[in-house]
């Protein structure tokens, strides 16, 4: 999964009913791809929206990866908007939570 795909997922879920992506279940290749993309973006300066907390940038420089990424849509000064990442075996998926309290697991199509 590329960083732009994650951003698109978060924005689309929010626009389609205020869905808040909170968990990613990724195949190992997808996870590595996303971690590499977020590292490159964060170390390059990342513009206004870093995909990790500022305190974790040093970890990225040292070759480590946090097992979360920041949701660019639900992030605020008070809410970090962290999306936890896990390795799965079958297919990329996202757990999306909604304002009424329920959540859905959405299977993610590979681009």
Number of domains: 1
Number of beta strands: 5
What series of H and E elements makes up the topology?
HEHHEEEE
Calculate the mean pLDDT score and round it. 89
For the largest sheet, list the strands in their spatial order: 2-3-1-4-5
The amount of beta strand, in percent, is: 15-25%
Number of helices: 3
List segments where confidence is low: pLDDT < 50 over at least 5 consecutive residues. Answer: none
Q: Tell me the Rg in angstroms.
A: 13 Å
Structural class label: alpha+beta
User: How far do the termini sit from each other?
Assistant: 8 Å
What overall form do the CA principal axes indicate? globular
| Biggest β-sheet strands, sense, barrel | 5 strands, mixed
The helix content, as a percent range, equals: 25-40%
Describe the structure.
This protein has 111 residues and is α+β, with helices and mostly antiparallel strands. It has one domain (3-107). Helix content is 31%, strand content 23%. It has three helices and five strands. The protein has helices at residues 3-15, 28-43, 57-61, and strands at residues 20-26, 68-70, 82-87, 93-97, 103-107. A five-stranded mixed beta sheet has the order 2-3-1-4-5. A hairpin with a 5-residue loop joins strand 4 and strand 5. It is globular and about 40 Å long. The termini are close together. The mean pLDDT is 89.
């Amino acid at each position: 999964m590329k960083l732009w795909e994650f951003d698109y997922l978060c924005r689309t879920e929010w626009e389609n009913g205020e869905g808040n992506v909170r968990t990613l279940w990724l195949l190992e290749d997808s996870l590595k791809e996303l971690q590499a993309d977020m590292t490159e973006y964060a170390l390059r300066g990342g513009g206004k929206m870093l995909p990790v907390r500022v305190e974790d940038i040093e970890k990225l420089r040292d070759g480590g990866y946090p097992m979360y990424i920041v949701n660019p849509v639900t992030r605020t000064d008070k809410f970090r908007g962290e999306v936890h990442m896990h390795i799965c075996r079958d297919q990329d998926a996202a757990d999306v939570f909604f304002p009424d309290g329920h959540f859905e697991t959405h299977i993610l199509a590979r681009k």
